[in-house]
Amino acid sequence: MIYPMTDFETPGTETSAPSPQPMALFRDRMRGPELASLYQAIWRLAWPAFLGQGISSMVMFLVRIIVSNLGDKAYNSVNIGMMVFFVVMTVIAAVGVGTTAQVALAWGAGDRRHAGRVLQQSLLWGFLLTVVIALVGMPTSKLLYHLLGADQETIRFGTTVLIWLYAATPLLAPGFFLAAGLRAAGDTRTPMVAGVIMAVAALTLSYGLILGKFGFPALGVLGAALAIDCSFFIFTLILGMLFLTNRTILKLPRHGWKLDTKIASAIFKIGLPSALEWILIQVGMLSYISVINKYGTEAAAGYFTGVAILTFAQTPGFGFQTAAATLVGQSVGGRQYDRAESVFRHCALMSFIFMVIMGVLFYFLVNRALLAYLFHELSPGSISYARTFIILLIYVMPLMGVSFGIGGGLRGAGDTVPPLVASITGVYGGRILAAFSLYYLFHPPLTVVWCSMFPDLILRILVMAARLKSGKWKKAKIAR
After folding, report:
1. Distance CA 75, CA 303 (A)
2. What is the pLDDT of residues 122-177, one digit of tens each?
3. Is 27 exposed, middle or buried (0-12, 13-18, 19+ CB in 10 A)?
4. Residue 146, Cβ neighbours under 10 Å: how many?
5. What does the alpha-carbon distance between residue 143 and residue 141 come to, in Å, rounded to a whole number?
6. pLDDT band for position 13 (50/70/90)?
7. Is residue 416 within 8 Å of residue 97, measured between CB atoms?
8. How far apart are CA 378 and CA 79, in angstroms?
9. Are 387 and 446 in contact (CB under 8 A)?
10. Are the beta carbons of 56 and 319 closer than 8 angstroms?
């Protein structure tokens, strides 16, 4: 949706917002056709995002099933490697968060040319960042598994996975930036289609390269890494070709392909808190795994299986997070603050409802018999742990939905520090503190330790709600 460029300063200057007004969290004045139009806008952006993410998540779930045929240790090593790789991708995605906010603000202000310029700079600076990450990450892959206390076989498997994932990052990352720009401009369908193709490629290559099907050699865990690399590169290639052939709503400038520190500063100012947030979350989760590992290999395998289910189950939240980021950013860019407030409320509500529905479906569908059939090489103990963890996830998923909706909107407005504070408070003040305290003081059953995810999500929501109520997120600026 495009908003007129009213009340904005002339191009070449930074815009400034008036003193922010506090926001009522639960009282919304939007009614009738206007509210129906808002729901249509949210749904139009959300469904392609969570459908595409859902398909990708389902494929990653199936990849885990394929890897489970290699045994518990290979399965755990690949899952740890993927967690670390996603830490790397969240650093890269931080550039995407800054890109999303700046493109959405410029788009809302009616300045399409500047929106394209922001995307251009994100590609240049993002590529440099990925080269540095690859050069640092590859030599330290083995050390990470040692720090996590893995056994020698898991270390050997995992190091192979990580090195190959790191090596490919400079070729994979541009796709994230291109997708972020398109979503910020209101096009969530193109990334969805590219994501579906990527997912099919990932599944086909994983089955072939891990187990030696379709005439491919059986490469085991190395095949898992290569399949992920190739599928992400296909995603980048598809979006790149669409931009080069001028078939996208957002246009890349043909000239000016040189580093612009002012635009880069705005992108990283917004993106770096998100990068730090996601890094700290993943570091916290890795610390969390160190507690789970104390309960044995079966407990860890059950946890990773549950996380694989969660990745798929939370896709509606991802969709509404994308919708909130785009619509809040565009509304703030057009100085339509009442509309931005309504986007927050209704995205959080819709995300909550859809996550409840997903939880109910997964309660009845994902039972022990299904898990044992899908992960037939895992031990019965691992399956039992997985089912227990999934039951707990079902109860916490509605809270995740609210967190997705609020966090996405704040990031879309360029206000990325409060989600960082919320995540640090929740993960470390809630989950990690509770898990370590429970284990070392009482040595309870693992189910009790897993319940630490509840204070985590509650604290996150409370911190972000306080920021939302203050109205300070309305002070966004467009870098020129």
Report:
1. 12
2. 999 989 988 988 898 888 888 777 776 667 777 787 788 888 888 888 888 899 89
3. exposed
4. 11
5. 6
6. very low
7. yes
8. 14
9. no
10. no
357: CB partners within 8 A, 6+ apart:
316
d(CA 75, CA 80): 9
Label residue 335 left, alpha or beta by phi (over 0 means left) and psi (-120 to 50 means alpha).
Answer: left
| Greatest extent of the chain over all pairs of C-alpha atoms, in Å | 66
* Contact criterion met (CB below 8 Å) for 105 and 168: no
Q: Which two tokens stand for residue 359?
A: 């939880």
Closest CA to 231 of 180, 175, 282: 175
Burial of 294 (0-12, 13-18, 19+ CB in 10 A): middle
| The residue type at 149 | G
The identity of residue 342, as a single letter, is S
Say which amino acid occupies 84: V
Which residue, chain included where needed, has tokens 């993927």?
82
- pLDDT, one tens digit per residue, over 94-108 is 778 889 889 988 998
- Tokens found for residue 392: 């707990």
- How much is the pLDDT for 11? 35
Sequence letter at residue 53: Q
369's CB contacts (< 8 A; 6+ apart) are: none
Burial 312-344 (b: 16+ CB within 10 A, else e): bbbbbbbbbbbbbbbbbbbbbbbbbbebbbbbb
Residue 470: CB partners within 8 Å, gap ≥ 6? 20, 22, 23
Q: Give, to the nearest 10 degrees, the angle between helix 72-108 and helix 221-244.
A: 20
Both structure tokens of 294 = 């104390």
